[in-house]
């Protein structure tokens, strides 16, 4: 159930961004996509890794480094 909740958290903002794109609000889409990739997704990933006990609180900020979370890919996407 927690894995499903994680997937919902990372997927639900995408349709909203696509709606902005279809409405012709490309600057809102671009800004939203940038916020999603740079801020929202690392926070969600970090909180999941903290809850699973895979990282310490001090390592949370490292998730904002591009591709840093790939070392936890299996744990994030396939472990319940």
Automatic annotation (TrEMBL):
The chain crosses the membrane at residues 6-39. Keywords: Membrane, Transmembrane, Transmembrane helix. It comes from the Bacteria. The keyword Membrane applies. This is 1-acyl-sn-glycerol-3-phosphate acyltransferase.
